[in-house]
Amino acid sequence: MLITLEGLDGSGKTTVWEALHDSHPEATFTREPTESWYGDAVNRAIDDDDADPLATLFLFTADHADHLSRTIRPALENDELVISDRYSDSRYAYQAAALSGSDLTRPMEYIRGIHSAFTREPDKTIYLEVDPETAAARSGSTNQFEDAAFLAQVESNYERLIDAEPDRFVRVDGTQSPEAVIESVEEIVDRLRAEDA
Predict the structure, then answer these.
(1) Which residues contact 90 (CB under 8 A, 6 or more apart)?
(2) Separation between Cα atoms, residue 67 and residue 83, nearest integer Å
(3) pTM for the full predicted model
(4) What is the pLDDT of residues 59-76, one digit of tens each?
(5) Three-class SS string for 49-93?
(6) How does strand 124-129 pair with strand 2-7?
(7) How crowded is residue 65: how many other Cβ atoms within 10 Å of its Cβ?
(8) Secondary structure element (H or E) that encloses residue 125, with its range
(9) Mean pLDDT of all residues in the chain?
(10) Which of 6, 15, 22, 189 is least surrounded, with the fewest CB atoms within 10 Å of its CB?
(11) Based on the structure, what is the number of domains in the chain?
């Protein structure tokens, strides 16, 4: 089973992901961008405010393809629980926002079309909800992807994804205390594991 954690920067995904290491030590834990050289290229693009958004999309896509072949697919073939901090939905939401002012008329559909040929959809996606202003304040607005106005576009894109696949997404209130958020997510993962058994 592939469970992904999604949400705006500052929503608490990484904190939850780290906590799940203790409650589900049997799982394969991974994240995007990865720690590969592809992921390094992605992180350099994220830190460069002048990076071309279409070029950045393809860096993310290359990292995702490598992630699938090296980590995701092998773990799933071994019947392992895989928990990923960010995955394809982040690309759809964030890169579609980054490309909103480009020549692409429907950036999210374009990005999803590229991925549809090779990606492996998550079985469930836990979405940590926080408003863009809270997310920007928590993340420190250190780069273009953490600005409140940009995050408002990202949030709108996430809502489109959730509306399209409501059965795949599970919403969690990310404005609760970290302990409450972690407890909520751990309960969801336990339930999903029981249903999958």
Answers:
(1) 6, 32
(2) 13
(3) 0.94
(4) 999 999 999 999 999 999
(5) CCCCHHHHHHHHHHHHHHHHHHHHHHHHHCCCCEEEECCHHHHHH
(6) parallel
(7) 14
(8) strand 124-129
(9) 94
(10) 22
(11) 1
As a residue count, the chain comes to 197
Distance between the two ends of the chain, CA-based, in angstroms? 10
Structure tokens at 90: 């982040």
Which pLDDT band holds residue 138 (cuts at 50, 70, 90)?
confident
User: Domain span at residue 109?
Assistant: 2-196
Question: Read out DSSP for 145-190?
Answer: GG-HHHHHHHHHHHHHHHHH-TTTEEEEETTS-HHHHHHHHHHHHH
pLDDT at 137: 82
Which strand ranges, in their side-by-side order, compose the sheet holding 2-7? 28-31, 82-85, 2-7, 124-129, 169-173
Return d(Cα 121, Cα 87) in angstroms, integer.
Answer: 9
Tokens of 63: 């990292």
* CATH code of the domain covering residue 136: 3.40.50.300
Place of tokens 């490598």: 66
pLDDT at 101 over 80: yes
**Confidence check: pLDDT of 24 > 70:** yes
Degrees (nearest 5) of the Cα angle 22, 7, 92? 125
Instruction: Report whether 83 contacts 17 (CB < 8 A).
Output: yes
Q: Report whether pLDDT(142) > 70.
A: no
Helix (H) / strand (E) containing 5: strand 2-7
